[in-house]
Recover the amino acids of this structure.
């Protein structure tokens, strides 16, 4: 199979085996169960196939292989059915064997929430036993009472039904005795019923037919893992407050059921073993680890955990065998290091040294082994000379490994051997490739800042710049001293000689310097400058798909409709701004990007055309301001004159307009005079109005007017109407 644990293929094979003769179906079942040994459904189907052909020997053999590892009620019901079939006609001997089978079954799965039918069947079986004399009848009733009392204390789906049957049973035996027994067991039954209701909530989330496969990270597997974890946590809390022995048995049962579905999850096996250890049952934990390694033989995590347990309890040889088994599968540096540490703990220094001398000859040995053994000699054996020799020996092989150089430098730092540290850095930096030497240079600078004088610090910093950035031209920014160097020299741990804002500012400046050194392709923009070139777009910028853009529709968003009352009053204003406002209000729902330039004022189009492409979502503010200063945008004075010229026309939306009463209107002759006087000015201002973007803030305009010395108190009602109209989205003009 391409996929060893193909669930769909396994299900198809199981269905096909149902329609095949037993001789052809058996190899299929064996193949399925070798992959899914905890699938109670496949075991049940396999055993039922053997039972159908009355192959009792094969059936018994199959049950012996699966019953104790597949604790699921349907499979055990099949076992009871087989036992009753075999012993039904064997008289007293058969009855005794059947009773033993029931007790055996209930001892293992009697606490299952679905075990109610087995309890009921057992009670029915006991009632059917013949009683030849009063003594036998009394013995049968005593046996029934014991089974009932066990059943009503078990939180199952049938607990309430069993309680009613128990009450009837006791009343049928002795009403006077029944009252006392029922009263004694009523609180226990209530507790079992309450626990059943709680347990049912956790059971409902579990898929009992899930096949055990290695973790794939699917959402279904994660849901099942969480459901089992919650169920285990619930059972560990002993919700029924039963004695420790029964609670322990119940938790073991839930773990075994969990492993039927999460058989290949090492964390579940480890939790199971750890729970046994905390419970004081080390032998049981060892058995769990042994089963776990059989289920997941390649799990190094479980092997280390098992070896740790064996070492903790003094079984050194067993632990050593586990470490050697890890080395036999994968001879990697980690396994060698862990075995070194184990030998040092368990057998002493000489045993560890002997293995190190052997391990360093292995082709799979890396610098990690040298570092680990040198550290062990220094920290555990208190032998700095041996540790120094090991580092020197490794340096011959791993001079080009920056991590090894840094670890060696750390060791020498502990010895306060500054002379050898400088010699180590010089030797390493003379052989390390430039692209791999940055960390070593940084550590060298850090070392000089701690041990050296100012001259040596500045010298090493300059050498680092030349090594990492090249000597370059004289006066190159990369080689010049910067404030960043000062910050680096005079910071300590998490203490800085500047604020976080200043540090951020320095970082941005450093980025600008790097960009300044890049060759930027000149653009043919009319207002281009050197600053624009610094932030020109790189070829790596990904632009959005403008075909997917939609024109913003404020009417749809806010629910505002453009009614006839919102149309411009003056015909001249309508003509002037038809390409801007009317087109926007009429065609605002257009779906093409091409509609945007048609509704954009010419001045804004010119401004946007001069904007440079930028890296990232936000442009440089200084660049945008420089373009604004160089662009021929309408000034505030032009806008003031334009709106002043149009201020003689009242707006329908202004409170001081004509709708507020006749006292606010000008006489007809005065309006005519003003209209004639403003005709000439209107013609001059038309061009500037067309290039002026619509104002959007009344308060800001008033502040602008105050700043220019225009008193709001001198405004005529007509002027107020003009501003109110303009900022409400309407445009007033002279009447023609």
């Amino acid at each position: 199979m391409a996929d060893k644990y193909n669930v769909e293929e396994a299900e198809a094979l199981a269905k096909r085996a149902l329609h095949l003769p037993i001789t052809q179906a058996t190899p299929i079942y064996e193949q399925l169960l070798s992959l899914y040994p905890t699938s109670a459904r496949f075991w049940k189907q396999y055993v039922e196939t053997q039972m159908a052909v009355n192959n009792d020997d094969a059936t018994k053999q199959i049950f012996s292989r699966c019953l104790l590892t597949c604790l699921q009620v349907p499979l055990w019901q099949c076992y009871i059915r087989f036992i009753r079939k075999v012993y039904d006609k064997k008289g007293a001997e058969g009855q005794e064997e059947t009773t033993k089978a029931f007790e055996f079954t209930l001892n293992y799965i009697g606490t299952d929430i679905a075990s109610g039918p087995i309890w009921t069947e057992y009670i029915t079986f006991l009632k059917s036993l013949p009683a030849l004399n009063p003594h036998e009848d009394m013995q049968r009733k005593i046996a029934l009472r014991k089974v009932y009392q066990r059943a009503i204390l078990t939180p199952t789906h049938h607990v309430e039904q069993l309680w009613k049957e128990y009450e009837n049973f006791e009343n049928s035996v002795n009403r006077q005795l029944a009252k006392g027994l029922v009263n004694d067991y009523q609180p226990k039954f209530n507790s079992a019923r309450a626990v059943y209701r709680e347990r049912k909530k956790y059971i409902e989330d579990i898929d009992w037919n899930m096949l055990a496969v290695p973790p794939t990270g699917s959402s279904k597997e994660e849901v099942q893992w969480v459901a089992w974890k919650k169920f285990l946590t619930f059972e560990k809390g002993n919700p029924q407050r039963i004695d420790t022995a029964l609670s322990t048995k119940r938790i073991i049962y839930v773990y075994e059921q969990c492993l039927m579905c999460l058989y290949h999850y090492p964390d579940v096996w480890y939790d199971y073993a750890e729970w046994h250890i905390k419970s004081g049952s080390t032998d049981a934990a060892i058995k769990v680890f042994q089963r776990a390694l059989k289920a997941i033989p390649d799990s190094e995590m479980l092997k280390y955990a098992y070896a740790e347990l064996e070492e903790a309890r003094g079984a050194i040889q067993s632990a050593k065998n586990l470490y050697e088994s890890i080395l036999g599968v994968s001879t990697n540096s980690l396994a060698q290091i862990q075995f070194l540490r184990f030998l040092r703990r368990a057998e002493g220094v000489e045993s560890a040294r002997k293995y190190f001398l052997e391990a360093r000859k292995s082709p799979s040995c890396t610098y990690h082994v040298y570092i680990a053994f040198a550290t062990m000699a220094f920290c555990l054996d208190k032998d700095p000379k041996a540790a120094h020799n090991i580092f020197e020996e490794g340096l011959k092989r791993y001079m080009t490994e920056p991590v090894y150089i840094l670890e060696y430098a750390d060791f020498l730092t502990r010895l306060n051997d500054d002379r050898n540290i400088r010699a180590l850095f010089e030797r390493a930096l003379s052989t390390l490739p430039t692209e791999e030497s940055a960390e070593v240079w940084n550590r060298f600078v850090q070392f000089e800042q701690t041990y050296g004088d100012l001259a040596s610090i500045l010298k090493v910093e300059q050498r680092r710049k030349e090594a990492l950035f090249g000597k370059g031209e004289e006066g190159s920014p990369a080689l010049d001293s910067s404030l960043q160097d000062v910050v680096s020299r005079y910071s300590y741990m998490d203490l800085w000689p500047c604020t976080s804002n200043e540090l951020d500012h320095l970082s941005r400046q450093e980025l600008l310097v790097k960009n300044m050194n890049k060759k930027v392709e000149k653009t043919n923009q009319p207002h281009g400058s050197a600053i624009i070139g610094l932030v020109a777009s790189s070829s790596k910028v990904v632009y959005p798909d403008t075909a997917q853009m939609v024109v913003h529709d404020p009417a749809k968003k806010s629910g505002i409709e453009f009614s006839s009352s919102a149309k411009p009053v003056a015909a001249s204003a309508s003509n002037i701004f038809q390409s801007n406002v009317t087109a926007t209000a009429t065609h605002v729902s257009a779906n093409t990007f091409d509609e945007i330039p048609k509704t954009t004022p010419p001045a804004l189009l010119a401004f946007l055309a001069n904007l440079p492409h930028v890296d990232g979502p936000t442009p440089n503010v200084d660049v945008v301001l420089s373009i604004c200063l160089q662009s021929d945008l309408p000034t505030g004075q032009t806008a003031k004159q334009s709106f002043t010229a149009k201020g003689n026309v009242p707006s329908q939306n202004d409170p001081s307009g004509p709708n507020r009463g006749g006292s606010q209107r000008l006489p007809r002759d005065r309006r005519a005079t003003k209209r004639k006087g403003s005709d000439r000015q209107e013609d001059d201002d038309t061009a500037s109005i067309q290039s002026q973007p619509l104002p959007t803030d009344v308060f800001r305009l008033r502040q602008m007017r105050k700043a220019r010395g225009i008193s709001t108190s001198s405004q005529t009602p007509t002027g107020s109407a003009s501003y109110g109209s303009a900022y409400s989205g309407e445009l007033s003009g002279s009447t023609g």
